[in-house]
Amino acid sequence: MRLFLVLIIFFISYGMAKNNYPIVFIHGFMGWGPEEMGNYSYWGGKNNYIKDLEEEGHQIFAVSVGPISSNWDRAVEVFYQIKGGQVDYGSSHSEKNKIIRMPKGKSYVGFYPQWSNENPVHLIGHSMGGQTARMLHYLLTQEINQNNSEKEESALLGQSYSGWIKSITTISTPHDGTTLSHIITSTIPYVQYFAGIAGLFGNNYFHFDLEQFGIKKQKNETWLSFITGLKDNSIMNTKNFSAYDLSLVGAKDFNGYSQASPEVYYFSFITSTTKKDPKTSFQIPFEDTPLLNKARAKLIGSRSGYWADGTQTDSLWFENDGVVNSVSMFGPTTGVNGADPIIEYDPKDLLITGQWYWTKINQMDHWSVVGHFGSEEKKLRGFNIIKKHIKLLKTLQ
To answer: Is 207 tagged catalytic?
Structure first.
């Protein structure tokens, strides 16, 4: 009887446990930071989710990292924006990829300089931002050596930091890559799609953060001219770039050395805006899918087979949210060491670290879930899901 009472008290205490750790939002591919698009927020569009969450008492930070940079470069930038200091991509990484190790202008005061194992953070990443969050944890917990001999001399890469991240939440993230990256390079001009998205947002403040490559938009150069010129730049064909990280083979490579950590809680939200066509067995978009995503949803929903990089997909990859294949969002499964532990989230479960808990959001596209393009009802549904999840994060101990 006494043991039973002890267990009851434990579970009640667990359910009531609270933490006030800050929540760091990491935007995805072609995303932007606060005020870079004027009053149009990446997190909520015209309805600034961050402001609303702060008014509810949550401590929220939103980073601004390279919108088309690699996950390594983006994760390094996240670290210095949180902790503060001069961005340092590492000597080995910089030498290997022929980039500027510590570019001028990339130095930050740090919006949470007390960040440590005693003051951890929750990370929430949308789309590629989820991969970036995982990369940040990898860089934090590894001692990156140059040529396996000389220790890196940087605040991030020179030593291992354990316990700095409490949880990682990914929304519409291509953990196993997206076939849209293949479709773009093979059937649609790479720039055209994302230029269309950015054109709707406006481009007065958008910054590409490519100083490490020595690339910067000229003062009188138009946004479209700048990004169109990038498609002919050599960086597009390197592995230190978003195109590789978002591909099936690039994601598989990352999954091979970044496994779920026994000290972190993991959550994934799967979005889907397609349904099975009974005539063709392909996936077709729902009628309420925003026009910008409809054509891409139909393309992804009907393309499979062998891709140029040697990877292969089947009909399981047809379901999608207009940008990412839904099957890729559950969690990392394609690494050489096998899939991370992944199960469906059940509110009745006692949550444990080192395991992915997934929740599927049906009839929700890639952008509406974070406040863009869709109906007001759909965007509000996405925001309410995020708000509810943040409350869950505050119960983790």
So the answer is: no
**Which residues are CB-neighbours of 180 under 8 A, at least 6 positions away?**
246, 296, 299, 300, 320, 323, 324, 325
85: β partners: 108
Dihedral of the CA atoms 38, 40, 43, 47 (nearest 10)?
A: 130
The catalytic position among 64, 69, 91, 127 is: 127
Residue 253 bears catalytic tag: no
Look at strands 165-171 and 121-126 and give their pairing: parallel
Q: 3.30.70.360, 3.40.50.1820, 1.20.1070.10, 3.40.50.2300: which CATH number matches 2-393?
A: 3.40.50.1820
Q: Which residue out of 122, 126, 182, 366 is catalytically annotated?
A: 366
127 catalytic, yes or no?
A: yes
Q: Locate tokens 């076939």: which residue?
A: 179
> Residue 19 and residue 15: Cα distance in Å, rounded?
12
- Domain range annotation of the chain: 2-393
- Mean pLDDT, each 10-residue run in order, the chain (397 residues): 41 58 94 82 92 95 93 98 96 93 94 97 98 97 64 87 97 94 51 49 66 84 72 80 92 95 97 96 95 88 80 93 96 95 96 97 96 93 97 95
Residue pair 70/241 in contact by the 8 Å Cβ criterion: yes
H or E segment and range at residue 390: helix 376-393
| Bridge-based pairing state of the strands 265-272 and 356-362 | parallel
pTM over cut 0.85: yes
